[in-house]
């Protein structure tokens, strides 16, 4: 098949292209499909007009054309023209917001096939709560119409599959549950040799501050030599005792930080926004065989359970698990080995196989 992955925005500020579209596109290309990834430059004009091959995928960033401050009247038509020139068997459109959504509707109206890939909750229950009401209404309406008109919908979480079935005037014809994948490390992290560092990977909004305070206080009471390592962008982050804040890390330092920890904990609040997402940072830990414990929220619990990690229904259970592993290098080593082996089933090649089968049935 010829497949065109279409992003709604660029790579400069957000991670959807790098963490979902590109690895999925590469995995589909590895299966023998002809694959291109098309990126509009409206939010990242410095990349406009660039093209490169990443693996077997051709990545194109369109030139922005006339316009200013993110408003480019002709960009939607440029996207549609690029799609028509590539002549794909199907478009796979991420989020379908803005220019990409306009181009997708035009493509469908011409008889083309297109799947809408949703990996976040854009309504008022999710990211829409942070937008101007008019913008929230416009984007939610655009996404809703596309979900109804698309040949099929790809959803990154079980929550989103249910959301689109229950909250659409006309539910999508078919929905594929396709969480984010991972690329397993060559070997599991040497967790038995690592110091008792507890890793927390976060952007701030994805961690329950009160739960963190309670859990960390309880862990320290049992393992006083433990240290909390917080990595990621978290403005106004708390400063609990024996905690180090690393901030945003580049890829090499980020992976090294994971490999040097004893275990990782995830404490997502039980909100629709957190239930809707497929947590890439958790998958990064599983890929390296790092023992992981999480509260049972959406795909956090689903991915951790499949990999053999700890899915806690209570904070006390999570504390007991973390304490046992911090006290015993042998237990955490065995746990890491299990997680690393089972993580193979969550790989991007496996995700691509699921998408491939679905597209063949769909088309």
Features:
13 helices, six-stranded parallel sheet, eight-stranded mixed sheet, 14 strands, alpha/beta, about 375 residues, 2 domains, globular, Rossmann fold, single chain
Topology summary:
Elements: E1 2-6, H1 16-30, E2 34-39, E3 51-54, E4 57-61, H2 75-86, E5 90-94, H3 98-109, E6 114-118, H4 133-149, E7 152-155, H5 158-166, E8 175-177, E9 197-201, H6 209-222, E10 227-231, E11 243-247, H7 251-259, E12 263-266, H8 272-276, H9 280-287, E13 292-295, H10 298-307, E14 310-312, H11 315-327, H12 329-342, H13 348-362
Parallel strand pairs: 1-2, 1-5, 2-4, 5-6, 6-7, 7-8, 9-10, 9-12, 10-11, 12-13, 13-14
Antiparallel strand pairs: 3-4
Helix pairs in contact: 1-13, 2-3, 3-4, 6-11, 11-12
Distance between the termini: 10 Å
Mean of pLDDT: 92
Specify the oligomeric state. Answer: single chain
Number of helices: 13
As for the number of domains, it is: 2
- The rough form would be described as globular
CATH architecture descriptor text of the largest domain: 3-Layer(aba) Sandwich
Q: Do you know the CATH topology of the largest domain?
A: Rossmann fold
The top level CATH class name of the largest domain: Alpha Beta
pLDDT < 50 runs, ≥5 residues: none
In what range is the share of β-strand residues?
15-25%
The secondary-structure class comes to alpha/beta
Q: What is the share of helical residues?
A: 40-55%
For the biggest β-sheet, the strand order reads 3-4-2-1-5-6-7-8
* Main pleated-sheet profile: 8 strands, mixed
Order of helices and strands: EHEEEHEHEHEHEEHEEHEHHEHEHHH
Strand count? 14
CATH superfamily of the largest domain: Glycogen Phosphorylase B
Give the C-alpha Rg: 21 Å
